[in-house]
């Protein structure tokens, strides 16, 4: 076996309430393409951020080419030959490719810049990588794949020995994907180590040598790709989990309440049609960037659809703004609840009443603080929100309790259809269970839920039906027996 | 352990300073001014101060709405000038009451235009700065155009002068108007949908939008209200000095910002109140008066104002940090 | 195709604007087209143009400065006061350095204490105005000096020394922005602060320096203005911030930062200068001119904001946050 390029020993990292990484030991050989897989929240991105110096580990050591290193910030990582290519690129849009490659190091020690030689150098570099890219082009005019090339060229100009790619294929078209594979293949030939993070298992079989599976912050196994098949990897990723993690419920599914037909917006949502029934939890599965959130934003009027129609209770409705969606009884619990769902500086009371201030007003359209407090108190008790009082600012609540406030707010708006976008992200296990209970209660009351989740177990256990999305389209509808992790993954990664 | 308690105590001290520091400063100014010049603390002088601040106070209330919503309005001075000259010019033509109404309408229109332009440019503080900066020039020169650069005399209109110069008992009418305006503003901010949403705009307008609130409509309304308060301030000021000048309002917007920030309403939005602004306005008025009594020229007062704005913002920055540290400890 | 045309128009709006003005004048007043008109125009825009160059650098770096409106008139007064004792060359140097010093104060508060540049420069604008008015007691100060006048008005074929200095500034700015490490770091910092910081660029220094340059440029412009008008006055140059920001943005320098050029700002200056020149030509009132200047800012800023917002909403939700 070749020398190890990167070795991480006994890395642990915890965030308040969550053990993100638990004694992770992980090594990658020189010139190897090593896949790192795991469900969302398994700890992949935390691990990568530690290598890159964005986070520092609570415990553990990092060795690069056998030498112990300390990486405190991204610059340290660069000096040690580690380069990460994130999904949202670290590029300055308004500048040229060449300039982005040499950013911060233009002209070396000289004050004046010799553009000719910079462009020449960039061209040489790009040519040596076999990239067909004009070094003078502005980054904002590039395609995603070309931006990726720019990032790789930047990494190579640093003499990076280890390149980490975070979901590089998520946003690529098929053609671009082929190009990416060529690039990875070529890096490997140059003796560069590539850590390849991806959800798409097929890609791993195509280009990776080894695969490491992470689950719940622990390394499950590392193996040669040749010795494994897809089912084995999925099994390792999903794991065998206790059934009682998800509360059971009695199903009382009624008539169709919402019917979406041919929703469309740009490339992200293409001809999406589905039905939602009363008392149903409809899951939306798919990879990050498959267009699930975008579809729901159309439904909620946060973005405008370019084509398609929505029927509620058999009547066609035109929803052009969140206000109209609210009027039709639709609620959205957004993905990023801190930025989009809550006003963190306001107390629980005011976060709840905001969606329907009319209901806490006394005569003369004036806000009645007592009424407001009573309303909040009602939800505070029924949803078991844990906080010193209803006037506590939401900022200080835990993730789970914050999510409950968002649910309370939409309950208060008398919504019938709840769109939950990643409702348990960043919430610890106990609180998750309570959110699931709440979901069950909602459907028991005859309300309907659309659940977007990237957590396989959650979506499988909670949904009555699952729509799987891929590249902005619905590619499968799974019912009853068909709902298995294997099936969902198969369709999601196409 | 011992160290921790000490730092906790110091934290509490910091918190008190950052919360009530403004009142200490106010007290200090009053005491120093009183010692230097005994004339400062006479009843007449205090009424004078109140009378002097009430026009600035009206603008400061309007500015309070704007700053809470996460914006700023640099065009208030020009709107004041414009409303003032329009009002005084219209009095001989249509009579005092109608002239005042027209002036208020002008203020509302100017404010609404501000609001529309700012909403069009994304509604951030940066866009508010530049748009209202441009509007300040445009509206200021409009005021100059209207009067051809000259002052308009209002000495002949007794009923108009009554507003700014008359009093009920010993209480000047302008002071009454200011107090009513403060109460109304506080009421609107605390009790109405508009007031509540005003805070939400300053905290997080995306979350507000996704709560099904018409963010744009309310943002425009904020500037409309600011325009209305400015116009009221214009009427009061012109009436008090018996004339209108097309450059009368110059610098008033800065006084208003200073008063609001001094009162403890945060630049950047999301918190603050009309009551706080009253403290800021008083402090600003007392400071100006004290500087006058002490014989500091109006030019030197500008230096003091500039420094005060900086210090207030710096103190606020520090108090946010202190508060966060304190709260982080309690969690 | 349609999109390309509209994009082209948006990018070259200032060129198109100048074209329209020229066509208009060709019909309205053919005798406008004289060499003296051109030299007059250049002389008119040259002094503010120096500030415009510095403002272009600042806007590219993602910052903004209102206080030049006070620094410039302060410089005219300081110049008038120092000229008799210090002599011409030394006065220019000293006044410019004082401008740099004031800029450093702005830079400190923006770059180090991280207070919003609008508030910082608003506060210093007021304070400096107060200092200036105290200094001159609100009155203009004469600065009659033949060599100073020569410096400003001396000319070669109608091109005054001031205009040459202005061109020098444009060329220097363009050189710095395109050819030096510093200039490129300004672009990177304004384009994406975090990326620039991660790339090891001293972003704080960059932000700091923007204001120092602006202070120096405003003071230098003040000295030249005094040379020309043979007096210093607290009223000179109070509209400079508005003027140069609209020129820069008209020229295509984006208020979002990371984009722009001094040559294009020069075009923006020429456009506004022509507009004002034409107003005088057709007897539009001075106050009206200011009104239109204010209106230009509003229109230009809205135009600057519109395309980027559109782009955002097509791709992903626009996240709107409050700047500190």
UniProtKB/TrEMBL annotation, chain B:
Pfam families: BPD_transp_2 (PF02653). The chain crosses the membrane at residues 20-41, 53-72, 79-95, 101-120, 127-146, 166-189, 220-242. This is ABC transporter permease. Keywords: Cell membrane, Membrane, Transmembrane, Transmembrane helix. It comes from Christensenella tenuis. It is a multi-pass membrane protein. InterPro entries: ABC_transp_permease. The keyword NADP does not apply. It is found in: Cell membrane. The lineage of its organism: Bacteria, Bacillati, Bacillota, Clostridia, Christensenellales.
UniProtKB/TrEMBL annotation, chain C:
Its main location: membrane. The chain crosses the membrane at residues 12-35, 41-59, 66-84, 90-110, 117-135, 155-177, 205-225, 240-258, 265-284. The keyword tRNA processing does not apply. It is found in: Cell membrane. It is a multi-pass membrane protein. InterPro entries: ABC_transp_permease. Keywords: Cell inner membrane, Cell membrane, Membrane, Transmembrane, Transmembrane helix, Transport. It holds the Pfam family BPD_transp_2. This is ABC transporter permease. It comes from Christensenella tenuis.
């Amino acid at each position: 076996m070749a020398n190890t390029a990167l070795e991480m020993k006994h890395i642990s990292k915890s965030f308040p309430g969550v053990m993100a990484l638990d004694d992770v030991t992980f090594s990658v050989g020189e010139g190897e393409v090593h896949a790192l897989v795991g469900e969302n929240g398994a700890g992949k991105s935390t691990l990568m951020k530690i290598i890159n110096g964005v986070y520092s580990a609570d415990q553990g050591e990092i060795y690069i080419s056998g030498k112990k290193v300390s990486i405190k910030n991204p610059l340290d990582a660069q000096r040690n030959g580690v380069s990460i290519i994130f999904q949202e690129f670290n590029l300055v849009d308004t500048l040229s490719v060449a300039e982005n490659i040499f950013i911060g190091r233009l002209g070396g020690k000289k004050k004046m810049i010799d553009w000719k030689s910079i462009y020449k150098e960039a061209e040489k570099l790009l040519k040596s990588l076999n990239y067909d890219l004009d070094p003078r082009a502005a980054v904002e005019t590039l395609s995603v794949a070309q931006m990726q090339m720019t990032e790789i060229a930047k990494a190579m100009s640093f003499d990076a020995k280890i390149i980490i790619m975070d979901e590089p294929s998520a946003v690529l078209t098929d053609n671009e994907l082929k190009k990416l594979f060529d690039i990875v293949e070529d890096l490997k030939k140059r003796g560069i180590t590539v850590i390849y993070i991806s959800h798409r298992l097929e890609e791993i079989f195509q280009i990776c040598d080894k695969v490491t599976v992470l689950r719940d912050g622990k390394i499950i196994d590392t193996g040669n790709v040749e010795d494994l098949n897809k089912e084995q990897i999925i099994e390792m990723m999903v794991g065998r989990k206790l059934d009682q993690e998800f509360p059971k419920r009695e199903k009382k599914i009624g008539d169709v309440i919402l019917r979406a037909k041919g929703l469309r917006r740009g490339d992200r949502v293409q001809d999406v049609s589905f039905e939602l029934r009363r008392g149903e939890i409809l899951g939306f599965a798919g990879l990050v960037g498959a267009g699930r959130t975008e579809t729901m934003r159309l439904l909620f009027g946060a973005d405008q659809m370019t084509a398609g129609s929505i029927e509620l209770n058999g009547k066609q409705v035109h929803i052009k703004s969140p206000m109209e969606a609210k009027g039709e009884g639709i609620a959205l619990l957004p993905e990023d609840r801190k930025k989009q769902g809550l006003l963190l500086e306001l107390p629980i009371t005011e976060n709840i009443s905001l969606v329907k201030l009319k209901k806490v007003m006394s005569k003369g359209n004036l806000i009645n603080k007592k009424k407001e407090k009573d309303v909040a108190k009602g939800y505070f008790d029924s949803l078991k929100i844990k906080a010193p009082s209803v006037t506590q600012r939401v900022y200080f609540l835990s993730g789970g309790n914050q999510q409950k406030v968002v649910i309370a707010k939409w309950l208060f708006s008398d919504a019938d259809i709840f769109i939950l976008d990643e409702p348990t992200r960043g919430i610890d296990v106990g609180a998750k269970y309570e959110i699931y209970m709440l979901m069950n209660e909602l459907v028991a009351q005859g309300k309907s839920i659309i659940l977007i989740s990237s957590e396989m177990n959650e979506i499988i256990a909670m949904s009555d039906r699952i729509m799987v999305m891929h590249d902005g389209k619905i590619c499968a509808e799974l019912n009853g027996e068909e709902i298995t992790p294997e099936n969902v993954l198969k369709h999601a990664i196409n | 352990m011992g160290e921790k308690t000490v730092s906790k105590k110091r934290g509490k001290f910091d918190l008190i300073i950052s919360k009530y520091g403004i009142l200490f400063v106010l007290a200090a100014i009053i005491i120093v001014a009183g010692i230097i010049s005994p004339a400062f603390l006479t009843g007449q002088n205090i009424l004078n101060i109140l009378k002097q601040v009430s026009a600035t106070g009206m603008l400061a209330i309007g500015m309070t709405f704007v700053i809470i919503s996460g914006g700023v309005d640099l065009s208030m001075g020009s709107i004041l000038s414009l409303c003032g000259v329009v009002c005084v010019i219209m009095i001989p033509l249509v009579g005092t009451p109608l002239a005042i109404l027209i002036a208020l309408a002008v203020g509302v229109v100017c404010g609404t235009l501000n609001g529309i332009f700012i909403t069009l440019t994304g509604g951030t503080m940066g866009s508010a700065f530049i748009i209202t900066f441009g509007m300040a020039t445009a509206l200021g020169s409009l005021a100059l155009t209207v009067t051809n650069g000259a002052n308009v005399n209002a000495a002949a209109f007794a009923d108009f002068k009554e507003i700014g110069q008359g009093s009920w008992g010993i209480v000047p009418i302008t002071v009454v108007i200011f107090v009513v305006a403060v109460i109304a503003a506080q009421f609107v901010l605390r009790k109405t949908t508009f007031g509540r949403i005003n805070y939400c705009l300053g905290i997080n307008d995306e979350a507000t939008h996704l709560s099904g609130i018409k963010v744009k409509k309310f943002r425009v309304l904020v500037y409309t209200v600011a325009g209305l308060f400015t116009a009221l301030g214009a009427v009061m000021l012109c009436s008090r000095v018996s004339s209108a000048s097309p450059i009368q309002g110059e610098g008033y917007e800065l006084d208003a910002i200073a008063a609001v920030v001094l009162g403890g309403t945060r630049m950047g939005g999301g918190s603050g109140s009309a009551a706080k602004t009253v403290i800021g306005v008083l402090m600003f008025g007392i400071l100006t008066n004290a500087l006058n009594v002490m014989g500091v020229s109006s030019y030197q007062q500008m230096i003091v104002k500039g420094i005060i704005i900086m210090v207030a913002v710096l103190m606020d920055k520090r108090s946010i940090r202190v508060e966060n540290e304190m709260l982080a400890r309690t969690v | 195709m349609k999109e390309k045309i509209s994009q082209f128009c948006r990018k070259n709006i200032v060129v198109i604007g100048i074209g329209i003005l020229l066509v208009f004048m060709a019909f309205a007043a053919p005798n406008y087209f004289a060499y003296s008109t051109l030299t007059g125009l250049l002389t008119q825009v040259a002094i503010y143009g120096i500030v415009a160059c510095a403002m272009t650098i600042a806007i590219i770096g993602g910052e903004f400065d209102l206080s030049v409106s006070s620094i410039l008139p302060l410089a005219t007064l300081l110049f008038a006061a120092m000229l008799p004792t210090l002599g011409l060359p030394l006065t220019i140097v000293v006044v410019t350095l004082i401008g740099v010093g004031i800029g450093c104060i702005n830079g400190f508060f923006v770059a180090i204490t991280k207070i919003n540049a609008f508030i910082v420069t608003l506060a210093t604008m007021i304070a400096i105005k107060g200092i200036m008015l105290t200094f001159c007691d609100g009155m203009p100060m004469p600065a009659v000096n033949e060599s100073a006048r020569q410096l400003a008005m001396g000319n070669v074929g109608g091109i005054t020394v001031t205009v040459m200095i202005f061109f020098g500034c444009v060329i220097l700015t363009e050189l710095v922005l395109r050819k030096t490490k510093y200039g490129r770091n300004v672009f990177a910092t304004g384009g994406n602060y975090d990326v620039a910081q991660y790339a090891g660029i001293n972003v704080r220094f960059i932000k700091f320096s923007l204001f120092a340059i602006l202070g120096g440029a405003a003071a230098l412009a003040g000295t030249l203005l005094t040379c020309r008008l043979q007096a210093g006055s607290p009223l000179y140059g109070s509209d400079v911030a508005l003027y140069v920001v609209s020129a820069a943005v008209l020229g295509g320098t984006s208020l979002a930062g990371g984009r722009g050029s001094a040559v294009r700002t020069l075009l923006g200056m020429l456009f506004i200068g022509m507009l004002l020149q034409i107003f005088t030509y057709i007897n539009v009132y001075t106050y009206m001119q200011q009104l239109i200047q204010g209106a230009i800012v509003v229109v230009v800023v809205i135009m600057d904001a519109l395309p980027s917002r559109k782009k955002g909403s097509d791709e992903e939700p626009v996240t709107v946050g409050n700047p500190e």
